Amino acid sequence: MTRRSLIPCVIACLCLAAAACTGSRGDGRETASPPATHLPTAAPDSGARMLLRDAEQAAGTLERYAFSLNLTQRLDPVSGAEGEAAEEAETASEGRVEVRPRRVDQTVRVAFEGEWLAEYRTILVPEGAYVYEYGLDEWARVPKEEAAEMLETLSDFQVDLPEAVRQVAALGPATANRNEDGITVRYEGGGEEAHRFATRLLESTFAWSQQEKKTRESLEVRHLTAELVLDPDRLWPAAFRVEMEAALTMGDPEGSYVLTQTFTGAYREHNASAPVEVPEEAKAAPLLGNP
Known about the structure:
Elements: H1 6-16, E1 42-43, H2 45-59, E2 64-79, E3 87-98, E4 103-112, E5 115-125, E6 128-133, E7 138-142, H3 144-152, H4 156-159, H5 161-170, E8 175-179, E9 182-189, H6 191-205, H7 213-218, E10 220-230, E11 237-250, E12 255-268, H8 280-283
Antiparallel strand pairs: 1-8, 2-3, 2-12, 3-4, 4-5, 5-6, 6-7, 8-9, 9-10, 10-11, 11-12
């Protein structure tokens, strides 16, 4: 696979959630009680840590929600890739999640170099996964063993909000401020904590475990900014924004590149979104890849 086909392939991989597993997130059956906290109008790091602790607890009370996500990626050649131009890719997704047990229904659009190439609807439930490709106007079923893996590899910011809050908290010193959007917790920096955060995020946005070992080992996070907006009353996540710039080597022949990634999202209909249901035509569809 050439680098020119890499980013659209990865984005399509994200749409179908077909990257390798990043690690156990449990079975989605954890329970949590609503937090009791005093909301700050502005807080230094100690206040931000307390706020994130309470936000994690609040996120654990969610049974269902709707989401909107947007991912943009740019890969710029630095050296060893003479004659190659920068590449840009984007995905935009809308969907909803049921937490216990985990069920996801999302529609994802995929763009490369500013051109929207494909649109999919994917439904992932414990008993299987189903894919609808717009344009072909037909459903396909995913084999059950692959479906379970797909469900496990979705981003924390999509399907495991308590873990997403924990990941932001693990980044280290942050600030918290109240504004017109709610309460915004913000981290900006680099170092080992940012590297750990980035590699976990790249698993769902860049199929990280499928990259060559030398590529994974070459990753250098130059800068990372993470913002988490919390509902001012209930403290559950309302929106997020993660911006990252990283250097890495990849390709054949090997070259040096800069990956710039912006991942944003918003949550709505907390505990009020429609249930995730599988259409009868999806249940009756042929297995993906079968004629």
